[in-house]
Fold this protein.
Amino acid sequence: MEFSLTRMVQQQVEKAVSYTTIPEHIRRILKCPNLLLEVNFPVRMDDGQIKCFNGFRCQYNRALGPTKGGVRYHPQVNKEEVIALAAWMTWKCALVDLPYGGSKGGVICDPMTLSETELERITRRYTTEIMPILGPHIDIPAPDVFTTSKTMAWIMDTFSMIKGYTEPAVVTGKPEVLGGSLGRKQATGRGVSIVTRELYQNLGKSLQGATVAVQGFGNVGSHTALFLEEMGAKIVAVSDSSTGLIDYDGLPLNELVECIEKHACLANYGKIKSCPRDEVLYQDVDILVPAAMENQIRQDNADKIRAKTVVEGANGPTTPEADEILEKKGVHVVPDILANAGGVIVSHLEWVQALSGLQWEEDEINKRLERKLVTSFEKVWKKAQEKNISLRTAAYIVAIERIAEVYSYRGLFP
Ligand code: NAD
């Protein structure tokens, strides 16, 4: 069956909803995005030619507050993917109790072939095109695949120039000098490690010496590995898109981080024999952290997973068919909407700091992040125990019930 992110989100939601008494009209509302904007716009390239680009912004659900979600630049990004990712942001924000709905944006382009000045012009024009639906109390973008803090600075500047005043709260994930929050870069990986620790505590297990494999050694994967090592675990396998590295005596993480900083990929780390990158997924470890991209654990390879626990750093790494196989094998899966929510939690703190004109110490940020994730984990764990269901279905139930409750008070307009 062809892989479809939208089908995957719908299946996850329908399964969760079947355990609830949510009214039929709310189910119908939650099946479709509130708003989807498609834009086509011209940009002058460095050689003087004019090219047209196609972009999207989807605000999936606005019941809880302004929508929040990244902007993705990728040759394969499409409308369907943006809608599915916006839906995931909706459930994630609801689950961890943020006053946000979910959104996502994308521009079809290949950043690898574009100069910095071309990327800046694309970003400024895309911002102008979606300007009517942007704003600190409407929709707040953040970085996603192939967009960075610099992209956020361009969005913020374009928005501010058009409005006539500086508006730092219109984006998160900004450079620190522009009001980017301390701790944001590490937040998602820190969160992945916190939920792993909470799961282990609830299972009565110790992280001391637990073996870990991490797929994807980018922002989320590398920070998760470093934090889990700090908690006593042993990182024995990592991969990126170039290669896989395995050493059951423990990998030298700091050297691998240095290698990425210098050469951008693990293939240049010459001290350990490398292996095909997918081997990392199939190691006999205690914990597997898929932290690369969606659709990695599927019906065709789920049986080969030997880890006892999977903690989803990436969005959508496990398909619903694979989920069932892992569940039958007794593998504990901490779902993406809980495991990688650390990023949006700290993005929310960045937004609060921008709106209030304050800058908090990193300690304060980390304490707030930890409290929110621990509380969310407890809610999900309790729901899963109560109903004897997976952590994923439990997480969706907690998220969707919160949105349904908000609808029950807000009612329907007019
Ligand atoms: P990144 O670009 O920093 O890192 C991605 C890593 O995955 C890179 O090392 C890349 O080489 C590797 N990779 C790509 N394809 C691979 C493959 N087939 N096998 C092995 N490695 C592969 O991106 P990131 O910010 O770390 O995001 C990773 C995932 O986490 C994405 O799904 C993203 O949506 C999700 N996520 C990120 C954040 C965040 O704050 N950065 C928050 C929530 C969710």
User: Anything to note?
Assistant: DSSP finds 13 helices and twelve strands in the chain. The CA atoms of residues 211 and 234 lie 5 Å apart. The chain has a mean pLDDT of 96. The longest strand covers residues 50-61.
